[in-house]
Amino acid sequence: MRLFVALGLDKQCRHDIETKLAVLRKRYPVLRWTRAANLHLTMAFMGDMDETGLSALDEAVCKTSRNFSRFTYTIQGIHFFPSIHNPNVVALGVSEGAEKICLLSDSLEQNFADPRRMLQYNFRPKENRPFVPHITAARKGNERVSLKDMVVPEISIPVEAEGLSIFSSELNPSGVVYQLVSYYEFNISDN
Description:
Blueprint: E1 2-8, H1 11-27, E2 32-33, E3 40-48, H2 51-66, E4 71-81, E5 89-94, H3 98-111, H4 115-120, E6 134-139, E7 156-161, E8 163-172, E9 175-185
Antiparallel strand pairs: 1-3, 1-8, 2-6, 4-5, 4-7, 5-6, 8-9
Helix pairs in contact: 2-3
């Protein structure tokens, strides 16, 4: 099963994002827009893992979650990877709280750092570029598209991060379907 670790978004947050992006969806139908139900902030993509790998992943995510408290971050602005002239990904950025998400990413990486597990269970080594917290809003379709003239809507949505989720990803004829596999609430309070 193909797995990834993410900060999930509640129904209201996904609705708010969907509302903000509605005009762009209509104006740029050549992009493959992420369904509202699939919106999330990916912390780590693990790829194909068996039940033993899932068990090790559960252990690492649980350990990470125990060492963090709930925090708020703000979804703000739109980014284009690698560039606005020929984007592969259109993403919503994170302003306030981005540093906390990066610390969470680093902690996850440390908990995945057992080399035997990385080799045995197909953990993906960290990419050779810095982690940039974002929510994928759309991916490039089959046509080349420039978005340099895009009028970007004002986006500023506060989000309460309450825990880490492990999702499975399955491709079917109607698109990608994500299923929640495990959820680990952040356990340390700041009080």
